[in-house]
Amino acid sequence: MSNQIITLDLRRWIDEQTAAGVSDEAVLEAMVTSGWQREVARGALREALRARPPRATGLPEPKLAEGAHSVPAGDREVRIVTSVTAPRVIVFADLLAADECDELVALSRERLERSETVHIETGGTEINAARTSDGMFFERGENPLVTRLEARIAALLNWPVENGEGLQILRYGPGAEYRPHYDYFDPAESGTPVILRRGGQRLASLVMYLNTPPRGGATVFPDIGLTVAPQRGHAVFFSYDRPHPDTRTLHGGAPVLEGEKWVATKWLREDRFT
Ligand code: PD2
Ligand code: ZN
Questions:
Q1: Whose CA is nearest to atom 11 of ligand 1?
Q2: Looking at beta carbons, which pairs linking 63-69 to residues 24 or more positions away fall under 8 Å?
Q3: From atom 12 of ligand 1, which residue's Cα is the shortest distance away?
Q4: In angstroms, rounded to a whole number, what is the distance separating the alpha carbons of residues 140 and 161?
Q5: Residue 76 in contact with residue 236, Cβ under 8 Å?
Q6: How far apart (Å, rounded) are the C-alpha atoms in residues 214 and 92?
Q7: Reduced to 3 states, what is the DSSP secondary structure of residue 163?
Q8: What is the model's pLDDT at position 8?
């Protein structure tokens, strides 16, 4: 039997299980228990996810009045530089003031460590050659500046502060990069259920630039050929209505060619992040 036929056969069964309220994790384990190779089972689950309807209950998204070139964000009005509908990507100007960028850098500098990424099989973290930056996380509401920025982001994107992960700060030195990846958690990976217990899936990402690197360090979206130049105070926002490559939200941080690049990232979950 070809993989295609296996997949089609499994697809129908997976859809039935999902409709009956069985979790992706339980479906995957049931397939493995009944003799399917784990990789084949994962492939079939991914296929089934592709066909699943997108979220009906809304995504983080600014309130854009018709023809407006700026959007309210609580304590300030934020200008829109570029906006793409599919995938949803928006570049904002001056989301952060220069002194706010400098203060975030100063507050995080002493706390940076070599960045880790989530280990997809266990849900823990690991050092990863695809991500050569240094990083740290602020707790949500950890200090007055973080609290103010989180309120501004919640107002800008119409998404509760409580559903945001703690602000992540990254510093890339010369040559450092973040190779293209998706920010959502792959439902077919075994570590994902553990990660999802803390607030469900990620639905959107906001990468804020804390400095203007002299050369390199753009945020790139290879599937749509978009390159966002990092500029202090600007930010790039993108959302994904399902955890699937069909969202075309593959993105990366290109190597820094000169100087340093500092960013703050806010990820937004479907539920309260704990
Ligand atoms: O620093 C970036 O440009 C970048 C690129 C891709 C950051 C992230 N992803 C992230 O924080 O997820
Ligand atoms: Zn990312």
A1: 265
A2: 63/158
A3: 183
A4: 8
A5: no
A6: 20
A7: helix
A8: 73
Residues of the chain with pLDDT under 70: 1-7, 53-54, 56, 118, 120, 125-129
70-269 fold:
Jelly Rolls (2.60.120)
Q: Supply the pLDDT for residue 41.
A: 84
**What is the Cα–Cα distance from 62 to 196, expressed in whole angstroms?**
25
C-alpha–C-alpha distance, residues 219 and 236, integer Å: 8
Number of H helices, E strands in the chain: 6, 17
Ligand that comes closest to the CA of residue 211: 1
Stretch (H or E) spanning 258: strand 256-258
Q: Where are the alpha helices (DSSP H) in the chain?
A: 3-19, 24-33, 38-51, 98-109, 144-157, 192-196
- The pLDDT, as a whole number, for residue 63 is 95
Q: What is the reported pTM?
A: 0.86
Give me ligand 1 centre to Cα 88, in Å.
Answer: 16
CA 115 to each of CA 111, 136, 177: distance values in angstroms, whole numbers, following the listed order: 12, 8, 11
Q: What is the predicted pLDDT for the residue at 1?
A: 43
Taking the CA of residue 142 as centre, how many other CA atoms within 13 Å lie in the half-sphere pointing to its CB? Answer: 13
Q: What is the DSSP letter of 164?
A: B
Task: Please tell me the distance from the alpha carbon of residue 128 to that of residue 21, in angstroms, as a whole number.
Answer: 35
Provide the pLDDT for residue 226.
98
pLDDT of residue 2: 47
Task: Provide the pLDDT for residue 126.
Answer: 64
Separation of 35 CA from ligand 2 center, angstroms? 35
